[in-house]
Amino acid sequence: MKTxxxxxxxxxxxxxxxxxxGPIQLxxxxxxxxxxxxxxxxxxxxxxxxxxxxxxxxxxFEIDKFNTTLYKTIVEKCKDEYFPIVVGGDHSIAVASALxxxxxxxxxxxxxxxxxxxxxxxESTITGNIHGLPLxxxxxxxxxxxxxxxxGAIIQPSKCVVVGARSIDEAEKDNIRYAGITVFSTxxxxxxxxxxxxxxxxxxxxxxxxxxxxxxxxxxxxHEVAPGVSVPEQDGLSEDDAMTINEEIMKHIDEVVSYxxxxxxxxxxxxxxxxxxxxxxxxxxxxxxxxxGKYKKHNY
Length: 300
Ligand SMILES: [Mn+2]
Hints:
This protein is an alpha/beta fold. The protein has a single domain, classed as Ureohydrolase domain (Arginase, Chain A, 3-Layer(aba) Sandwich), CATH 3.40.800. The chain is 35% helix and 16% strand. The chain has helices at 22-30, 60-77, 94-105, 134-138, 170-179, 186-192, 194-206, 239-251, 273-291; strands at 2-9, 37-42, 82-88, 109-113, 160-165, 182-185, 212-217, 256-262. The chain has an 8-stranded parallel beta sheet with strand order 2-1-3-8-7-4-5-6, sandwiched between helices. Helix 1 (22-30) crosses helix 9 (273-291). The longest helix has 19 residues, at 273-291. It starts with a strand and ends in a 9-residue tail after the last helix. The site of manganese (II) ion (MN) has 5 residues, from loops.
């Protein structure tokens, strides 16, 4: 299948700067390897970014503007048989990439690989960082303001799985319980192993759907292994675990319809450690998506 890489250079969803530079760097690294099509979107440099933690709707309008463009770009382009790989940017960009995938494929599930569950709302958020709200927005739990550009279905919470979570706010836990999404913590992964957890995740997200959107946040990896993210968390996955997750995704590539890699922040990286991991993850997915056939339904 043809692949399309979309660079989504925005760091407006977090008070820390730098994630907007992630795609430029990663796409540059992939130049020699990737021969497919690339579209690069970068946030308007004239934006006066709000970094004020008491601002609970930080950069809401600017994010909506960026995501509207991103959404339209993917929807327009993917009318043809493309496999979109969206490179962030902070995780707020996934509202556009995931809903663009819904627009094309109708009923899909989602696997959200992340240290955080990103299930806050404007009411529950402590930081006002919108990169903590996208999964709630995508699965239709409040946050309507973040998906005005989308006319179509949302992803059913029952088909939504988070893998690798270990930092969840108290109010966010209530949102998760209320919405009914599935969360596998890092502890679950330690107990059951990456493969068993991913197997289960694919069963839940793939159950009676037309495909699965995968959103991979690099902060799922331990902060010492991958420091180049805006909100690093300790007690995370090893590099091996992260690669195994990706390999499981590749095994299921015929069910996967779209993929994001987000939150690489080159300003926070040390010795290009995180960058190297991000490039490896992307190279694997590109290779796998290139050989992928059309969506294949699995009988769960
Ligand atoms: Mn995230």
